[in-house]
Structure formats: C-alpha cells, structure tokens
Amino acid sequence: MHPKHLLLTLAATLVSAKEDKTTVPGWDATGISFSIPTYTGTAASVAGINAEETTYHISCTKGAPKEYCQIDKPWTMIQGKETFSMTGSYTVGTTETDRITATRHYDCKFKNYSESASCSFSVTVTGSVGGGPWSSSALLETSIPSSNVGFYDMVVTGGVDKFTKPEATKTPGAAAGKLVNARAVATGVPLAGAAAVALVSELYT
User: In whole angstroms, what is the distance from residue 4 CA to residue 44 CA?
Assistant: First the structure.
C-alpha cells in the first residue's frame, strides 16, 4: 500500500475521502436542528507516532471549496492497536442570527476485526439561535457489532517520514531497544473507526 494513502477507518459523518451514498445524520434538540456534514476535501498529517498509536491531524486540502470542507482548527484522530478516537469542531448556521459550533468526540475500544467494539459518542453545541444564546449536549455509550463495518480512504500528505523514524518503534514507558512494527499501528486497526461509522448510523437512522 502506498504510504501516502493509508487505509484509515473514519467516521463517515466526520470525514469521507470519497463521495458515496452515505447517510448524513443530523442534530435535533429543543426544536433546533442542523445537518452533520460529510467532507471530501480533506487530508491528514502524522502528528505523532509510537509503537502503540498514531496521531493524525485532519485539515482541509489546499484550495478546497467551502462546500467540501470547513475545518478551521485541525481535527485530531488517534488510532491504536485496540482503540480509536476522534475529536473535531465545525460551525453551522452562519447567518446574521444563527451561528452554532459543534464539537464531536468518538472513542472506541475493541479487540480485533471480528469482535464488537465498545464506543462512546458525544456532541456539544454552543452559539446563538435567533439572536439569543443557545447550547446543548448529548452522550451515548453503546456496543457496535462487527457486521456494521465500513471503510474510508484518507490521503496522508504530511509527516509520512515519521513512520520510519526511531520513535515509531518505541513503546511509551518501555525500555529502549524493543522493536515493534509501527506501520501495523497505522494500517492494522480497521474496526475502531468503522465502529464509529456504525455508531453514528445507529444514533440517527
């Protein structure tokens, strides 16, 4: 697999590198609703790596039209051998009276591809609606069956050289000299992000 096109299992409603027929869920609370976007003009960079996990920062690609990506501050995705998490904010309803910023966080734990994952999903929204302040939040914890799995390619355009650096084989807190296949950390965790896809699907469909 080309190192700049690592297979990252991302939540479809957070980042999608291809335009599929995907369900775009929404948020509805106290009579106020808005859509959760699916972005296509995105790319990731490797922010940190060790033998246990890889951290990616996800941003808009250079020159991406607003309709394809509206990420002001890079989102953070962390893939581990048995974990997956993603945190990101986006703004919706940018009118004279309505402007809402939503921050979402996914956190999943799993054993392997054939087993279910234990996941939590939270969203916090703040801003103004109708000219007045408004905020809301929600949290869900659930188990996702392995049958609800989907995959999305994410182009990695920065920090690819980190996969071959010494820190990529170091286990945090362990003695120096123990070698681990760091590339497996980046490419061998298919269930966690897919579980997030399933989680969102179960939440809103």
Answer: 9
Token pair 């980190």 is found at 162
Summarize pLDDT for 146-158 with one digit per residue, the tens. 666 555 566 788 8
The domain containing residue 153 runs over which residues? 7-89+146-204
pTM, rounded to two decimals: 0.66
Question: Does the residue 163 lie in any domain?
Answer: yes
Pick the closest to residue 170 from 155, 157, 180, 162 (CA basis): 180
| Structural domain contains residue 94 | no
Q: In the predicted model, is pLDDT for residue 24 greater than 70?
A: no
- Which residues are bridge partners to 108 per DSSP? 84, 119
Cβ atoms of 89 and 103 closer than 8 Å: yes
8 Å CB contact between 156 and 77:
no
In 66-131, beta strands by DSSP E: 75-80, 83-92, 99-109, 117-129
Q: Tell me whether residue 141 is in a domain.
A: no
Structural domain count, the chain: 1
